[in-house]
Amino acid sequence: MSLVKFNNRTRNTAPYFNNVFDSLFSDALNKNYGVSKMPAVNILETAEDFKIELAAPGLNKEDFKIELKKDQLSVWAEKKSEQTEQQKDYTRKEFEYFSFARSFVLPEGVDTEKINAEYINGILNITIGKKEKAKDEHKEIVVS
Predict the structure, then answer these.
(1) Beta strands of 28-71 (E only): which ranges?
(2) Is beta strand 91-105 parallel, antiparallel or unpaired with respect to 41-45?
(3) What tens digit of pLDDT does each residue of 63-103 get?
């Protein structure tokens, strides 16, 4: 026995009810809209510093771990939650686990002593200061 997709549509008519549900369910199965594996990131550069904004709603500041090794800044987050309900004849246990890791290669001229992070309203803000030498490095080139 083989399954054949039923298409009950002619050229000049609107899609039928079955086709709407076919596209809805195939999209839902092929693309998991509710799960985002990697949080969105904005990276901004100003004259004084670099700013990284990482969208990670639903976490606490204790869930983050940030490390700097040479010129690579790594951000990890992990959240585990567990709920147990015991009744007379059964036990129901639900758990949730969420984690991600992102790494950023820092450019030259970064002052590693001036790195700050704060978590406000679901966004992790990391500020990375620039060295004084990198800020003032501006010169005019004369065309000869």
Answers:
(1) 41-45, 49-55, 64-69
(2) unpaired
(3) 999 999 988 999 999 988 777 777 777 777 777 788 889 99
Return all residues near 129 (Cβ < 8 A) that are at least 6 apart.
48, 49, 110, 111, 113, 114, 115
* Count of C-beta atoms within a 10 Å radius of residue 31: 9
Of 64, 70, 74, give the one whose Cα is nearest residue 103.
Answer: 74
Q: Is 93 exposed, middle or buried (0-12, 13-18, 19+ CB in 10 A)?
A: exposed
Instruction: Give dist(CA 115, CA 125) in Å, integer.
Output: 11
* pLDDT value, residue 51: 96
Residue 103 tokens, joined = 């790494």
109: three-class secondary structure by DSSP = coil
What is the average per-residue pLDDT within 31-56? 81
Rounded to an integer, what distance in angstroms lies between the CA atom of residue 100 and that of residue 36? 10
pTM value is: 0.62
Percent of the chain past pLDDT 70, that is, above it, reads: 69
Edge-to-edge strands, sheet with 72-86: 64-69, 72-86, 91-105
